[in-house]
Design goal:
By secondary structure, the chain is an all-beta fold. Helices cover 3% and strands 44% of the residues. It comes from Rickenella mellea.
Length: 250
Amino acid sequence: MFLTNALISSADTVVLPATSFDCYSTLEQYWAYLYPWGSDHNGSARMVGNSSDHKYISVSEGVLTLSASPVSGQPPSTSNPYPAIHYFSGTVHANVQINVDGIDAVGYQVEGEFISPTATGTWPAIWLTAVNGWPPEADIGEWKGTEQNWFNTFRTANDVSSTIVPWPTDGNFHSVKAVLRAVPGSTSDLTIAYYLDDVLQAIHNAAGFMGQAMWLYLSHFQMEGSSGSPGPSGTTIFQARNVIVTKLTS
């Protein structure tokens, strides 16, 4: 591994600033509550939150806090594979979409700093996935119940690149970053460079990603599932700050 940083030029544009977690008005300017399709996904948590309910989705002094707490008596998830719901949790998705088209945007840089739980059954993430259909998907930070982070690039359900690295558990914020760039001469493919604390960890081939609009999610995510069971018996939190999205034009 080696220390490297993507170069941001004066022509590049910040489309999601580090100030988006300063207060609820800026949160709601740049982010929307829950998933675009609603409250449920593929794990045992149901997302809860809106402009007047901040129990699971809160901001203060530039930090977003997403919480997950046990719950009982809920109907199963409405999303395949329809698991039982054991938690209420929080998710937000960015209003801006990520779309490397090779013309207006030759790339995007997505970065942020996080304190993540690593207990069995916790499954927070910062990730990109297709607006229309699935895949593509790029997991910039995915913490699945261990002291590790997964950098994943899903080209198809069966064609996946994964780079797994140790995650610091010192209780401090640590950064992850993904730099998506068009492959010169290609009309369909990108590369994605993944970083932990500004150290390059992997460069994945993102075949077929060009021109595919993607949502950016921050989630305390679905709990259990791929992160193991049983999950925590109490409340856990996932925190984010300085989340920035920059559209690269050169």
